[in-house]
């Protein structure tokens, strides 16, 4: 079940990436010439392969996932998707006011897109064979956090309804109007698809312990156990017998 959940979540992240990439590419093609749009599209969709190759070149010492990196990456990805989801309609409006500002915001969104790919690679943890972390099975969020999560996304829906209601007032041609309509659907879909990301961010916020598995740095044997925060707030390996086990491969 754990392996299935891992594969399903990674597939979900890939779908979110493709959705954002397609929306961003469609927006670029609408405002730029065909040559520039082709260059942007090539960069966007070749970014995962480039970043993945860079990860393959990392030394083995850097292939151990850290607890702080695991936690903050969950925060970062949720915030990044939220920022991009608001930047896309903002870029649409700015593009109607002036191409210079549109180019600046487009570059920023493109950089966020690259950071999104890096964050997804960290979620995959395929390059952390020596030490990989995961949430315990009993991890959960509180009822208050669940209510806040639902309310937050409802407010986002209302915000997008308001944003896309004022956009048509500045649109002067049919092509831009169609683009605005497609972007509205995409933003609402991204909002819905970002719910699991925000849920994981809340799990990370509540986490007091993290499961790990990998290779022991000294014995070089299979290592399975739990990490928890000490009194100083630092993540350390829990040495309690029921939580810490070493297996021979």
TrEMBL record:
Keyword S-adenosyl-L-methionine appears in the UniProt entry: no
Record-annotated membrane-spanning stretches: 7-27, 39-58, 70-89, 101-125, 146-163, 183-205
Keywords on record: Membrane, Transmembrane, Transmembrane helix
Superkingdom: Eukaryota
The keyword Acetylation appears for this protein: no
Name of the featured protein: Uncharacterized protein
Organism: Caenorhabditis nigoni
Gene encoding the protein: Cnig_chr_II.g7594
């Amino acid at each position: 079940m754990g392996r299935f959940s891992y594969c399903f979540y990674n597939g979900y992240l890939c779908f979110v990436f493709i959705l954002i990439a397609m929306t961003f590419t469609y927006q670029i093609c609408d405002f730029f010439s065909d040559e520039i749009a082709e260059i942007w599209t090539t960069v966007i969709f070749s970014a995962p392969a480039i970043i993945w190759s860079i990860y393959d070149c990392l030394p083995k010492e850097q292939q151990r996932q850290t607890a702080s990196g695991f936690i903050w990456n969950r925060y970062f990805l949720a915030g990044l998707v939220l920022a991009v989801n608001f930047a896309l309609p903002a870029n649409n409006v700015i593009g109607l006011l002036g191409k210079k500002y549109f180019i600046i915001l487009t570059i920023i969104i493109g950089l966020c897109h690259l950071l999104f790919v890096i964050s997804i690679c960290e979620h995959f943890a395929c390059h952390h064979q020596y030490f990989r972390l995961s949430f315990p099975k009993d991890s959960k969020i509180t009822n208050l956090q669940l209510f806040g999560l639902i309310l937050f996304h409802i407010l986002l829906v209302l915000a997008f309804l308001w944003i896309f209601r004022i956009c048509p007032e500045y649109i002067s041609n049919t092509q831009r109007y169609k683009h605005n309509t497609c972007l509205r659907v995409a933003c609402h879909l991204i909002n819905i698809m970002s719910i699991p990301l925000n849920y994981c961010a809340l799990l990370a916020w509540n986490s007091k312990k993290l499961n790990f598995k990998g290779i022991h740095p000294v014995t070089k044997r299979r290592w399975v156990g739990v990490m928890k925060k000490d009194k100083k707030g630092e993540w350390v390996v829990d040495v309690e017998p029921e939580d810490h086990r070493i297996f021979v491969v």
